[in-house]
Amino acid sequence: MPDAIIDSHIHTYRTADEGRRAQQGTGRSGQTGAFDEYVELLAGGAIEAAVMVNMTPVAEMRDALVARGQSDEEASAEAIGRLQRRNAWTCKIAREHPRLIPYISVDPSMGEEGVVAELTSRLAEGARGVKLHPANQRFAPGDRRLWPLYEEAQRLELPIISHCGLSFDKEFPEYASPTAFREVLDQFPRLTVVLAHLGYGFLDESFEMAAGYPSLMFDCSYAVEGSLDPPAISDEDVVTMFRRVGAHRVLFASDWPWGHPLRDAERIRRLPLTDEEKGLILGDNARRVLGIDIAAS
Ligand SMILES: [Zn+2]
Q: Comparing C-alpha atoms, which of 134, 107, 106 is closest to residue 122?
């Protein structure tokens, strides 16, 4: 698959219903998000591999359970149980479909030991990295309860992909700012951190962080995609943005089922970038930084 792309950020669901519920009408791919739909896309040969960054909205779930009459304690235990079952499912799907790469979700409310224990047990099930969504999960990236996790991820060279930017996280926009990772990057200089969506909505902060932390990576999902007409960012601005961050630091990603990987990749192929830049963004950066090597396995 010489020209095959790597999609560094997708969400998969067990069923079409579950996927539709998660999208709440906000998706642009026209697909439900059921994992077998993505398996079909992989079978087409244009995509080499995709990273499943499945997450569980623990805080929202806890609130909903409390509203239904559960105690805080019961609701927390139930929400964490769902997170753990989702992690187990994500790893299981990846074992059945090795071109789907499993990243797991953790929540600081699990406590320092709980978070590391979750990582350790899922690594044995094939997990390859961690996905965080600080704004939705309502924690600061620098939350000390996550430091043992960062330490372990740094030691094991496991990437952390974090949601970043986008204005719909109105509750805690400061947790969605690229600069919220400053403390983590200072403390764990060898940790691979990927900020999703290029921190769209906080682009100046993304540029500032890119300049200050040369190993910080970005994924371009949503910020650059091929389903919106007109696009959120013009072709000219996308090229400027990629070059400002550095093409060697941008990972192609669709955020499927929100974006569509084939349409999104098509847009990047049409941009006035060099072939080398396109190759880096569409696959080579992910191969190098996320350690994805399907062709060799
Ligand atoms: Zn996403």
A: 106
Q: For residue range 259-288, what is the model confidence (pLDDT) as tens digits?
A: 999 999 999 999 999 999 999 999 999 999
Centre of ligand 1 to C-alpha 189, Å, is: 25
Of 146, 250, 267, 243, the closest CA to residue 195 belongs to: 250
- Ligand 1 centre distance from Cα of residue 32 (Å): 14
* Separation CA 199–CA 218 (nearest Å): 8
* Structure tokens given for 231: 């696009």
Residue 270 C-alpha to ligand 1 middle, in angstroms?
24
Tokens representing 17 are: 């219903």
Query: DSSP secondary structure string, 89-127?
Result: HHHHHHHHSTTEEEEEE--GGGHHHHHHHHHHHHHHTT-
Helix, strand, coil percentages (3-state) for the chain, rounded to 5, are 50, 10, 35
Task: Report how far residue 38's alpha carbon sits from residue 44's, in angstroms, rounded to the nearest whole number.
Answer: 10
Domains of the chain: 5-289 (3.20.20.140)
Q: pTM here?
A: 0.96
Written as one letter, the residue type at 14 is R
Query: Mind listing the pLDDT tens digit for each residue in 2-35?
Result: 579 999 999 999 999 999 999 999 999 999 999 9
Instruction: Tell me, in angstroms, the distance from the centre of ligand 1 to residue 255's CA.
Output: 5
- pLDDT tens-place string over residues 212-228: 999 999 999 999 999 88
CA of 71 to the centre of ligand 1 (A): 30
